[in-house]
Structure formats: structure tokens, C-alpha cells
Amino acid sequence: MSRTMSYYDLRDALAQTGCPVCRLTARDAEHYLDGLLWESVNDPDVRDKIRQARGFCHEHAWQLSRAGGSLGVAILMHDVLRSVLKAMESSRFHALPAFSLRRARESLDRTQPAAATADLVARLNAKAECPVCIQAGQMERIYLSTLNDHLLEEDGLLSAYETSDGLCLTHFRLTLTLIQEEAVLDAFLIAQRTVWGRLVADLGEFIRKNDYRFGDEPWGSESDAWIRAVGALCGAQRRVGRA
User: What is the dihedral of CA 11, 37, 65, 57, to 10 degrees?
Assistant: First the structure.
């Protein structure tokens, strides 16, 4: 089977700490945002997609903050805010009849969205997903498929996976949905159990050494087990912006 750049990227990421797919998709999001700010700010199609998405998700909006990017961010936000203001034009309060069923339900359950402002809320809702999330999602599927395709081949990714931090729980589940061969599943499960078994052992040692009776013992690989465990279950911590 031929090997694409995603194979080599994944192999290199497995040699680093944390979930390799989290690491790679975060890198790809950064590259996408770089390209957007330096090359595509004035692209009409790109601008339309960003308007439809009402900008970006919380995470990727703040990742736009980077040295030299202020003008590009200003241009994009100016465009989106003008679109939002236009959506707010002619907005008005849509009063419900005093004795309507909908009004009675709203009175009884204050968590119900108000019908009087439903039209305006609908116009302000995003009509498309955050464009960076779309790009990251596409790359995420490529990396997971690459892992599945190359796990058991000769000189494949299995040995690198066994000595790595493995996938986070989210990416582990997603990879399972792609596996169609019993041998791949068996090897993948054994590798992940090995990875998380080491982590559980490190957590146990971290807990033990926090007991005052063993406080004089030197710290080893278990010293950061608690933060690695958070990443294993919830995914890697994302950087917000960069200098």
C-alpha cells in the first residue's frame, strides 16, 4: 500500500507526547488560519462561508490572535458583524395571544425559548459550521483512516503506537468505527490496553507518592500522569492563539 504524507505525519506524531491526532489536527487548524489571514482574507467565497458560519467557533476564533494578524482579523470581523447587523434589521417583538397554548407553556416552563423572539434568533443562528472545524474534521478522518490502513502492514504503525501515548478516548472510539478486519481490531485493542495500562500504573504511583509516608522518594515518569490522564480521556489541551 502506498504511503501518503499523512502516514509520515502520523508516524512522527506518535513519537511525541499526547494523542497524535489531536496534535495533528491542531497543527492543521493553525496552518489553515495562517493561510486564511495571509492569503484569503479578501477571497469572496471564503468570506461568504465565514459569514454563513457567523464567524468561527469559540476555540478557533481566539486562535486567530497572532502576531501580524490584526488587520486580517479586523477585516473578517467587520464583514461578519455587518452581516449580523443586517440580520437584525426590521426585528420586532412577536407577541403571542394572551390565552394561547404556546404562551401558557412558556409561562409554566421558563426554559422554553420565547416565541416572541424566535424569528430574530433564527436569523442570527449560524447557517454553516465553523470553516476551521470543517477543515480539521476532514483532516481528522484522513489521519484515523491512515492509522487503520497502515497499522498492521510490514514496518507499519503498530510498534510506534505501542510505545506512544496512544489516541485519546474520542479518537479511539472514532477509529473503532472504521475497522473492518478482526486482526486489525485485535492488534488495536491490545496496543491501546498496553498504552492505558502504563498510564494507570503511573497514576497509581503518582497517588502513592503523594502519601506522606513515601514523600521522600524521587519522582519519575509518573510526575505528570495526572495531566496525561486528562488528555487521554478528554483530548489534548488546545492552544488559544500564539505570539
Answer: -80
